[in-house]
């Protein structure tokens, strides 16, 4: 990855994003509020203007009608000297009087408010002014005078929404600037309050779950905590394992070294040499078995990545029945040596898995059933598909059995119920740990039934293929 890419991938600043968000929200709120306020104000303002226009026009029309002359001058005398525009129009649309101009005005018959007043008695309209930011509101009333039907019309220029906005623009700018400044300070303070507990959290990861400041962070804290625990457990396990391995290797090595020294220095009588060589051979075989189990466990560990994981993609359907037959045949020699009868009952069952690992699992279980047995004992290897459709593999013996208190521990690495018996029979203390590992890789479940003096049955149930 180039430096540029790495820089581009750098995480964003949470404080900065949060601050920007707050400021943006602040500004948007101000703009929205001011727009809504301006709109509402303009509406109520024009309503009031219209209302005043109506009342003024009605007063003018009433005064003018009361005079009973139909003379425009009579209306001119009534018109107030305000900025109002007041016009008198006859039934043909001719302008008889306008208080803002003496120049002749064009015919007003086409004006909607005039047409409406002549037809319905009153009419109103709003027209754009010459300037963009203003509009003129007109209200017209029909009056019946001796001179005939006429229309009294009043009009007033009113600032429209643009005009009002332009008026409030300085206020708007001031408000935005103030809000921006306020939002900057407030957001800085709030961001600090938000981010500080998170920073503090990172300082003490041991109590992360108890100290978590926001409920949204609980999943993260949980993951961190469990990850740490897993790492610590792994570390402890690794340390214990190394210590155990060293110890297990040291014992045979010490014997080998001792016997070899006796032979080397000539202290061993010549008739003892074959026996010593035999012991050296036996200890070396034990070491080879131990090293090969360790290698196997470490290989399984690397497949598993230290975590129980779903089965790897290379798993294929494995015929358990064929596997059971094969294992039974391979173990027959061992069984004979231990004066144990070995039988199998292989019913159709298929497991999705790695064949070599499943062979190892069956062999280890079978080997234990033979080794922890008595002369004349019996071992049976079974496989079948359960009523729930799950295939299983089972090894049952009528051997020495496992005491209740040890049953939960026998799958631990190097745990043995009877250390000397295990060593005597060539056990490494890792067989069941390997079984557990392989079962885990296949998402299998191990069930153990055992009673001292009666025997042991271990069943591994696999998921449906
Ligand atoms: P080992 O190499 O010592 O046999 P394992 O991991 O295979 O190690 O087994 C752990 C211990 O569990 C054994 O030392 C033994 O005490 C006990 N054990 C395992 N299988 C049986 C069994 N079928 N009957 C009685 N005890 C058993």
Automatic annotation (TrEMBL):
It catalyses: ATP + protein L-histidine = ADP + protein N-phospho-L-histidine. Its main location: membrane. The chain crosses the membrane at residues 21-41, 169-190. One of its GO terms (cellular component) is plasma membrane. It is found in: Membrane. Its EC number is 2.7.13.3. Residues 244-465 form the Histidine kinase domain. SUPFAM superfamilies: ATPase domain of HSP90 chaperone/DNA topoisomerase II/histidine kinase, Homodimeric domain of signal transducing histidine kinase. It is an enzyme of class 2 (transferase). GO terms for molecular function: phosphorelay sensor kinase activity. This is histidine kinase. It comes from Candidatus Gemmiger excrementavium. The lineage of its organism: Bacteria, Bacillati, Bacillota, Clostridia, Eubacteriales. Gene3D superfamilies: 1.10.287.130, Histidine kinase-like ATPase, C-terminal domain. Keywords: Kinase, Membrane, Phosphoprotein, Transferase, Transmembrane, Transmembrane helix, Two-component regulatory system.
């Amino acid at each position: 990855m180039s430096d540029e890419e790495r820089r581009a991938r750098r995480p964003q600043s949470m404080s900065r994003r949060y601050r920007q968000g707050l400021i943006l929200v602040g500004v948007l709120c101000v703009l929205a509020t001011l727009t809504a306020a301006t709109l509402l104000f303009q509406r109520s303002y024009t309503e009031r203007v219209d209302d005043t226009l109506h009342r003024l026009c009605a007063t003018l029309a009433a005064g003018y009608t009361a005079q009973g002359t139909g003379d425009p001058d009579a209306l001119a005398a009534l018109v107030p000297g305000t900025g109002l525009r007041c016009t008198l129009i006859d039934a043909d649309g001719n302008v008889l009087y306008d208080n803002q101009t003496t120049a002749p005005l064009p015919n007003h018959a086409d004006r909607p408010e005039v047409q409406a007043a002549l037809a319905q008695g009153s009419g109103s309209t709003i027209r754009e002014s010459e300037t963009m930011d203003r509009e003129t509101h007109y209200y017209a009333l029909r009056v019946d005078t001796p001179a005939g039907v006429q229309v009294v019309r009043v009009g007033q220029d009113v600032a429209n929404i643009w005009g009002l906005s332009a008026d409030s623009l300085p206020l708007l700018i001031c408000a935005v600037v103030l809000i921006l400044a306020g939002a900057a300070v407030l957001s800085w303070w709030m961001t600090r309050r938000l981010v500080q507990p998170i920073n503090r959290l990172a300082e003490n990861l041991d109590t992360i779950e108890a100290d978590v400041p926001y409920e949204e962070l609980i999943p993260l804290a949980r993951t961190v905590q469990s990850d740490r625990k897993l790492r610590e457990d792994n570390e402890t396990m690794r340390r214990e394992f190394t210590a155990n391995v060293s110890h297990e290797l040291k014992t045979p090595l010490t014997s080998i070294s001792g016997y070899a020294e006796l032979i080397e220095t000539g202290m061993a009588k010549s008739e003892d040499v074959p026996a010593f060589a035999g012991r050296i051979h036996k200890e070396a075989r034990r070491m080879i078995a131990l090293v090969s189990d360790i290698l196997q466990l470490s290989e399984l560990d690397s497949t598993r990545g230290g975590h129980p994981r779903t089965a790897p993609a290379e798993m294929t359907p494995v015929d358990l029945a064929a596997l059971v037959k094969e294992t039974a045949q391979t173990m027959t020699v061992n069984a004979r040596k231990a004066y144990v009868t070995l039988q199998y009952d292989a019913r159709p069952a298929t497991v999705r898995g790695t064949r070599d690992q499943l062979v190892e699992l069956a062999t280890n279980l079978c080997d234990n059933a033979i080794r922890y047995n008595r002369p004349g004992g019996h071992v049976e290897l079974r496989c079948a598909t359960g009523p729930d459709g799950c295939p299983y593999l089972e090894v049952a013996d009528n051997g020495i059995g496992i005491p209740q208190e040890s049953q939960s521990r026998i799958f631990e690495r190097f745990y043995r119920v009877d250390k000397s018996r295990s060593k005597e029979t060539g056990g490494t203390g890792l067989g069941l740990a390997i079984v557990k590992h392989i079962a885990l890789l296949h998402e299998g479940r191990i069930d153990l039934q055992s009673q001292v003096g009666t025997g042991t049955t271990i069943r591994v149930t696999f998921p449906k293929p």
